[in-house]
Every structure is written in structure tokens, then in C-alpha cells.
Specification:
The chain is mostly helical and 235 residues long. The protein has 12 helices and 5 strands. Helix 5 (72-83) crosses helix 10 and helix 7 crosses helix 8 (108-117).
């Protein structure tokens, strides 16, 4: 009876002692054991496992995540066009890129690329829209033409010859628009843009990171955001 009891005790204690002895002699083995135990205790969320295992699901959610994380460039484009008064120049009707560039004193090539960016991106509607002389394609001929008589597709206009018009969104960015959003857009692009640039530091430290040094003030003149806004009379 005593022999049977001792055998049971050894059967329970021996594996633990063996593991302790091995772990004490070989530290990396102990780390592996602890890592496996931690992995078993802390499993991934089911949603995470589902996303990791489904390429179709990853592709479906990748675009909105990537788009939202990069919208700072789009807001900067709207701010620059507003600051240049592009929307004020377009309030009398469509204009070519070259005409807009002359009206706002900007480089035609760079302005053309800016206007293309403002024509709408993904789910975001455009503040301007490109217009064409004949927006409707030519109807298909009733009978086949020989290759040398077939009408060729119209060529894309040169950058300076592209024509743009306002959309209802862009019309709100004019200076003299009823309920104009021009002041807010410029404020967002300049002061709020600087303030949001310190968000990472604020979250890490728990302290506001905005200061007037972003506009050249000395260390002794640093102000918190609302004190700074009260001091800037130009806004």
C-alpha cells in the first residue's frame, strides 16, 4: 500500500522536478516553455484571426483604411486651392488651367495637377469638375467603316487646355459665398494643421504639445493653443 502511494507521488512530482531541473540548467528552454504557456493563455481575437486568414476580406477593408490614413494630402490640396482663390476665379464659369493660373498667379503645370486631384478621390466628391466641349461620345456607325475612314478617338487635351468648373462643394469655398467656408478651410490648413502635428507627443506624454514656436516665437513666448489663438489678431 505504501509502495503504491509513493509511486503515485513520484508520478506527479517527477515531471515538475524534471522540468525545473532542465529549465534551471538551460535558460532558453525555460523561455520557450513560458512563451508557449503565454501563447496558450493569450489567444488572438476571433476577428483578427478571421482577417488574417481571408485575403478577400483584407482586400475589402484595405482601401478605406489606406484612404483615411492618407487624407491629409487631400485636405492640403483643398487648403492650397482655397488660399490661391481658385474657386473665386471659377465663379463666373468654366476656365482652362492656363486661364486659372493667370488669374491666381500660379504655375500652370503644377496647378493642373492640383485641379486633377481636386476632381474627386474615391468616396470623396470633387470640389471642381473637368468639363469638355463635347461630353457625349460619338455614336457607333451603323455600318463598318474601312480602317482609314474610322473616326479616331479625341486626344486628351494638354494640361493647360483642360477646362474646369465649380461643383456645389467648391462654390462654398469662395470668399464672397453666402456661408463661405473659406475662412474655416484656411484656419484648418494653417493653425489646426500645426496643432494636430503634435498629437503623437500629446498622447505619449499626456501634455499639450502646441506652442507658438511653430510660427517663430522664442521659447519664452510659448503659448498653449487657445492662448495662442487669442493672441493672434490676424485670424
Amino acid at each position: 500500500m505504501k509502495v503504491g502511494f509513493l509511486a503515485c507521488v513520484l508520478a506527479v512530482v517527477a515531471p515538475a522536478c524534471d522540468g525545473f531541473m532542465v529549465s534551471s540548467r538551460i535558460p532558453h528552454v525555460a523561455r520557450r516553455v513560458r512563451n508557449r504557456q503565454a501563447t496558450r493563455e493569450k489567444e488572438l481575437d476571433p476577428l483578427v484571426r478571421l482577417l488574417d486568414g481571408s485575403e478577400t476580406l483584407r482586400q475589402a477593408v484595405a482601401f478605406p483604411v489606406a484612404f483615411v490614413s492618407a487624407t491629409n494630402w487631400l485636405s492640403e490640396c483643398v487648403y492650397v486651392a482655397t488660399k490661391l482663390r481658385v474657386f473665386d476665379a471659377l465663379c463666373y464659369g468654366p476656365m482652362t488651367v492656363a486661364e486659372i493660373a493667370s488669374a491666381v498667379d500660379a504655375d500652370p503645370s503644377a496647378l493642373g495637377r492640383l485641379l486633377r486631384a481636386l476632381g474627386g478621390q474615391g468616396p470623396i466628391p470633387g470640389v471642381v469638375i473637368e468639363v469638355f466641349e463635347n461630353p457625349f461620345p460619338l455614336p457607333a456607325p451603323p455600318i463598318p467603316f474601312p480602317p482609314f475612314l474610322r473616326p479616331s478617338a479625341p486626344k486628351a487635351p494638354e494640361e493647360g487646355a483642360r477646362r474646369y468648373a465649380l461643383t456645389p462643394l467648391g462654390a462654398l469655398l469662395r470668399e464672397d459665398a453666402v456661408g463661405s467656408l473659406r475662412p474655416w478651410t484656411i484656419f484648418s490648413g494653417e493653425e489646426l494643421g500645426r496643432a494636430w502635428g503634435g498629437l503623437y507627443t500629446a498622447v505619449k506624454t499626456g501634455r499639450p504639445s502646441f506652442s507658438a514656436t511653430q510660427r517663430g516665437a522664442g521659447a519664452a513666448d510659448q503659448l498653449e493653443f487657445f492662448d495662442y489663438m487669442s493672441a493672434v489678431q490676424s485670424l
